[in-house]
Design a protein that fits this description.
With 214 residues, the protein is α+β, with helices and mostly antiparallel strands. The protein has a single domain (15-181), classed as Inorganic Pyrophosphatase, CATH 3.90.80. The chain has three helices and ten strands; from the N terminus they run E-E-E-E-E-E-E-E-E-H-E-H-H. It has helices at 141-153, 171-189, 200-205; strands at 22-24, 29-36, 42-46, 53-58, 68-71, 84-88, 99-112, 115-116, 119-124, 163-170. The strands form two sheets. The chain has a five-stranded mixed beta barrel. Strands 3-4 form a two-stranded antiparallel sheet.
């Protein structure tokens, strides 16, 4: 795991906004922050503004997440959140907020409540048992069916019919989506970031002085 290129700090940095999307772009390996483990009914989310973990909701049905679930830092999808990622082959729970390096193998195109909410599909890059997994097809046909079924039906008892899987595409299409989300992050979200914690004047009252690099 590569070290974070950042000076030591007295405060915990928000990895969503200091880590690049890619750990190794040439090999198709992204940084990913795990929020939810497979078999969980609980939907945990990293708070975008602070990096803290919160329980967003308890699932309305008996369906559980089929794969580990998280996000790719410094990306911004059309649903107004960081780009989602699901990671196959994890066979023991990872701590919420855990940073992993994941090798992209495809993407599930998904519409949630009328908004694009795609799911990049990956495996742990450090897991040698996953070396033979190069594409979504390598996970087997049933895994695609299981993923599609979960995301199309997990909200049925609350908002039925709001999820629609549009298909599974290869890693090339996944990287195109990641690139689009990186560009959107830089144009739409990055300008909102505040660096006030580096300014003594701001620290005094907790408000932006307007003179620091925010």
């Amino acid at each position: 795991m590569a070290n974070i290129d950042r000076k030591p700090s007295k405060i915990m940095p928000n990895l969503q906004h200091i880590l690049p999307a890619y750990a190794n772009k040439e090999d198709g390996v992204v940084n990913a922050l795990v929020e939810i483990n497979a078999t969980s009914r609980y939907k945990f989310e990293l708070i975008t503004e602070t990096g803290h973990i919160k329980l967003d909701r308890v699932g309305y049905s008996s369906l559980v997440y089929p794969l580990a679930y998280g996000l790719i830092p410094m990306t911004w999808d059309l649903d107004g959140d960081l780009l989602d990622i699901v990671i196959a082959g994890i066979d023991e729970p990872l701590p919420a907020g855990c940073l992993v390096e994941a090798r992209v193998i495809g993407i599930m195109k998904f519409i949630d409540g009328g908004e694009e909410d795609d799911k990049v599909i990956a495996v742990l890059n450090d897991d040698k048992r996953m070396n033979h997994i190069k594409t979504v097809e390598d996970l087997g046909e049933h895994m695609q069916k299981e993923l599609a079924y979960y995301f199309e039906h997990y909200k049925d008892l609350k908002k039925p019919g709001t999820g629609e899987v549009k298909g599974f595409l290869n890693s090339e299409e996944a990287h195109k989506t990641i690139a689009e989300c990186e560009q959107r992050y830089n144009s739409d979200y990055a300008p909102k970031l505040c660096n006030c914690d580096h300014c003594e004047e701001c620290k005094q009252d907790g408000n932006c002085c307007g003179n620091c690099e925010c």
